[in-house]
Hints:
α12 links the parallel β12 and β13. The chain contains 14 helices and 13 strands. The longest helix has 22 residues. α1 packs across α14. It folds into two domains: 142 residues, Rossmann fold (3-Layer(aba) Sandwich), CATH 3.40.50; 219 residues, Glycerate kinase, domain 2 (Alpha-Beta Complex), CATH 3.90.1510.
Amino acid sequence: MKIVVAPDSFKGSLTAQQVSEAIGTGVRRAYPDAEIVAKPMADGGEGTLQCLVDATHGKIMTTTVKDPLGRPVSAAFGILGDGATCVIELAASSGLYLLSPAERNPLRTTTYGFGELILAGLDLGCRRFILGLGGSATNDGGAGMLQALGYRLLDQADQPLSFGGGELSRLSRIDGSQKDERLAECQFVIACDVTNPFVGPNGASHVFGPQKGATPDMARALDDHLRHFADVIETSQGIAIHDLPGTGAAGGVAGALLAFLGGTLQAGVQIVMDITRLAEAMDGADLVLTGEGQVDAQTAHGKTPCGVAQLAQSFGIPVIVLAGSVGAGIEALYEKGVTAVFSIANRPMTLQESMRDSAALLAQTAEQVMRMYAIRRGY
């Protein structure tokens, strides 16, 4: 019997690799002779860096960059096993978690550190970049990133802008004459699951600004500033990003990546499935086990279990999802190829208890699922 184990991490508890190992332990208790193919997964958000480095036998690097408020912070990035691909999670340099609630102000926060991470990858010889945009504290449209890469954002007096989304209303022109020449040799793949445009009621400022500290008045101002930025970008680059789906990701960083660096948007889980060659692993498999910490209605919108299930469905393979907790709306997953969803909680417990014991709970639940599967298979 061949079992593919392809879970995401359980955030704050276990990495995807550790989840795979725990599930494998449970499977072997029920089927000691089973062929288990472990393919730890991610969906482009937190954990993607570690997942891809593990899958390709790459390495984690660290460097000092600017945090969202321009302070020095140590940030990790990854070099994949091919030595030419750099994986960067924007949150490592420009993430909301780097700020206290009182410090959250998207008028001031910058993506400059994100650009510095790209430079670090360039310095190590990388020319292909996989960029995860989740968890940003910024709403500067990627202006800080461009500044770090050598673009000059200038006001009417030809003076450079300072940091933050609040500065963009002063932008007069963008000078790319001093940009890093190595950028022309690069390919940028953007892990992006949102479809929000750059500006407007569904754009970066109004939808994501509030969680970054924006008041309603601030969100309106930021949207106006991004619209002005998009107008200048259209003049500079000949591309109108205002209403393009996905360009609002990470406070508009995706828009800048498309317009200036030729970036391409791709579903995060698809990127990971491609690099880990999950489709090859599924060939001849009898069952797929996947999972993540919280499974609910949102899981059907680009999360790991959904992507894995859709791929397995194309092979006609049943899929079981193991979850730390199960919320409302999981019925949508059944149309995506999921056969059943199981919570690993085996008794009333707190979140802290569940997280502490998640490895043991995963192994126990995987064992019980496999014993039930034995009935279906006639064992």
